[in-house]
From TrEMBL:
Keywords: ATP-binding, Kinase, Nucleotide biosynthesis, Nucleotide-binding, Transferase. PANTHER family: THYMIDYLATE KINASE, UMP-CMP KINASE 2, MITOCHONDRIAL. This is Thymidylate kinase. GO terms for cellular component: cytosol. It comes from Parvibacter caecicola. It comes from the Bacteria. Pfam families: Thymidylate_kin. GO terms for molecular function: ATP binding; dTMP kinase activity. One of its GO terms (biological process) is dUDP biosynthetic process. Belongs to the thymidylate kinase family. ATP binds at G19, G20, E21, G22, A23, G24, K25, T26.
Length: 238
């Protein structure tokens, strides 16, 4: 799918990674970035909320359980504020410069978590998303799906204490998971599902294959063969 009209000048490529808690986005973003850099691309890895000084401060604020219950509308607007700063300060300039931008979460997460999860009207979420992103739409979005919301939460929290979203409960995360699935079915091909239930090497191969239309060099089977991906199976899941 060609979304060149949504690029500041048609030069860069904007790829987002979505999914529930513990889906392994970090592992596969880093692995993809290393491969792209090896091909000679300039790559920028980002996360939401975050990626700017203001965004990281807002991230710490909105995810800290110490602040207690947060209004769903307040929560959504904090994410949108961080996004607006990230788009203007980092993403759009990077795309103008011809970089490949890999972002851990973007507008789809807000629709899934605050729309389906918190119950905010989806049209209101989409309007806020479009305003904060200034109309920017990813050229491709990979939806990483693990065994289920419960398994994902176990993965996400086994390293230490859970953040406020991770503490939201299984029912909430199941709504988020169902929301991602519905959004994928409604999409025009931008959102591509990646099954993470098997070995990480197979997941990575799916990631590369799913992005061939936006980064054709990833189709090089001589370079990206089974041995290339197998290194992931001896590393911890991210």
């Amino acid at each position: 799918m060609d979304n060149a009209g949504n690029r500041p000048d048609g030069a860069g490529v904007f790829i987002t990674f979505e999914g529930g808690e513990g889906a392994g986005k970090t592992t596969h973003i880093r692995f993809l970035a290393k491969a792209l850099e090896g091909l000679g691309y300039s790559v920028l890895m980002l996360r939401e909320p975050g990626g700017t000084e203001l965004g990281e401060a807002l991230r710490a604020l909105v995810l800290d359980p110490a602040y207690g219950p947060v209004s769903p509308r307040c929560e959504m607007l904090i994410y949108e504020a961080a996004r607006a700063q990230l788009v203007d300060e980092v993403i759009k300039p990077a795309l103008v410069a011809g970089k490949i931008v890999l972002c851990d979460r973007f507008t789809d997460s807000t629709e899934a978590y605050q729309g389906f999860g918190r119950g905010i009207d989806r049209e209101q979420v989409r309007t806020a998303n479009a305003f904060a992103a200034d109309g920017l739409v990813p050229h491709a979005t990979l939806l990483l799906r693990c065994e289920g919301a419960a398994e994902g939460l176990v993965r996400a929290t086994h390293h230490g204490s859970a953040d406020r979203l991770e503490q939201a409960g299984l029912d909430f995360h199941q709504r988020v998971e169902l929301g991602f699935g519905q959004m994928c079915r409604e999409s025009d091909g931008r959102i591509r599902v990646i099954d993470t239930s098997g070995p990480k090497s197979l997941t990575a191969a799916q990631v590369f294959s799913a992005l061939v239309d936006v980064v054709p060099a990833l189709a090089d089977s001589a370079l990206f063969d089974e041995d290339y991906f197998s290194v992931l199976d001896v590393k911890a899941h991210g």
